[in-house]
């Protein structure tokens, strides 16, 4: 599964900030039409999604190891210490990605007015209003030359 299809805790925020679903934002980035801020935010989002998946895997592994119905003879303090270190590293990375993404989103310039729909001109009405005038009417009057 690609990082672009993995969920992240910041997907809703990205959709609110950029006004489009995350999938559409990735499509824009792949097509090369996304602004640099969107591309950077999606890169951080991808790292965040992978890190959150790591956190969830370690959490689930620890929960499974500590399940009440689990045989105590199968418990390993060394394995739990290793999982604790992995969890610490993954949570630390997640925190750094959250900070970086938050700083990027808050440092973005305020959005300008929403894009307007292109103006459609009625060519027939324009032609009627801008009908050609006689050449003498189109030019300003030339002052007469005075003699010396």
Topology of this structure?
Blueprint: H1 11-18, H2 22-31, H3 36-65, H4 77-107, H5 123-129, H6 135-138
Helix pairs in contact: 3-4
Binned strand content: under 5%
| Low-pLDDT residue intervals, each spanning 5 or more residues | none
> How far is the N terminus from the C terminus?
92 Å
- SS-based class: mainly alpha
> How many strands?
0
What does this protein structure show overall?
The protein has helices spanning 11-18, 22-31, 36-65, 77-107, 123-129, 135-138. The model has no long low-confidence stretch (mean pLDDT 85). It is an all-alpha fold and 148 residues long. Helix 3 runs antiparallel to helix 4.
Throw out a few tags for this protein.
single chain, about 150 residues, mainly alpha, about 60% helix, elongated
Kindly summarize this structure in a few lines:
The chain is 61% helix and 0% strand.
